[in-house]
Amino acid sequence: MVPERLHKVLARAGVGSRRACEELIRDGRVRVGGEPAGIGMLVDPECQDVCVDGKRVSTTGKFYYFLVYKPKGYVSTARDPQGRSKVTDLVPLPGVRLYPVGRLDLQTSGLLILTNDGELAFLLTHPKHDIWKTYQAQVIGVPDAEEIARLQQGVLLPEGKTAPARVKILRVLKEPAGATLLEIGLREGKKRQVRKMCEAVGHPVIELQRTNLAFLTLEGLRPGQYRRLTPSEVRTLKELALGKP
Ligand code: URA
């Protein structure tokens, strides 16, 4: 086998995104053939043992892809030092290190993908890829046309201006009185982006749910439930992330 960069081999083996794998190497948690590994190192996975935290990584392992309906109150990480409920607890798969693709806040519910395929995770979360994520946000008050236009065109946040978004009012709610249900589509994923955008135009979020990721929806699932992605869904996601028609 042609030697490859270690962080790519680790990502393909499902250890994490390429960036996360570089960090593991930098933190000294990766060994190749028993020796500490270095950033940029070339390895031949067929001849060299690769270990993370002392455990051998399977570089020829099987990939799993799940669509999970994250309930509120679950953290979107595979490890939580505070011992809170994790999205990965919802899909018990002994011996497989699943992790979430992107994040939803603790109090946000909705669609999340869990996988052990680091390549797909990398592709889907990279900002240059054209993957739309759609949210339904219950906000305080009723945004006017100018506020909707600001959300659509980009809002100035401390971390920079947000990219153009798809925003529309779904309905004005009776309960909670005076609130509005917005549909917001984003291509980027800054931390707490929807909450910050709505706050910035004077309409703080009360409830937030991610309803779609690209063509995927929550149809047929209740909070806490999950299903496997079909091979064709995985293929289409990869094509979208790679920018193929
Ligand atoms: N935007 C937010 O504010 N929170 C999320 O969880 C996702 C997007």
Commentary on this structure:
The protein is elongated. The protein contains 6 helices and 17 strands. The chain has 3 domains: 4-56, Roll (Structural Genomics Hypothetical 15.5 Kd Protein In mrcA-pckA Intergenic Region, Chain A), CATH 3.10.290; 65-127 and 216-241, 2-Layer Sandwich (Alpha-Beta Plaits), CATH 3.30.70; 133-213, Alpha-L RNA-binding motif (Alpha-Beta Plaits, 2-Layer Sandwich). Strands 7, 8, 9, 10, 13, 14, 15, 16 and 17 form a 9-stranded mixed β-sheet that branches. A 4-stranded antiparallel β-sheet has the order 3-2-5-6. A two-stranded antiparallel ribbon has the order 1-4. It is of the alpha+beta class and 245 residues long. The longest helix is centred in the C-terminal third of the chain and has 11 residues, at 231-241. Strand 2 (30-32) and strand 3 form a beta hairpin. Helix 1 packs across helix 2 (18-26). Helix content is 21%, strand content 29%. The chain binds uracil (URA).
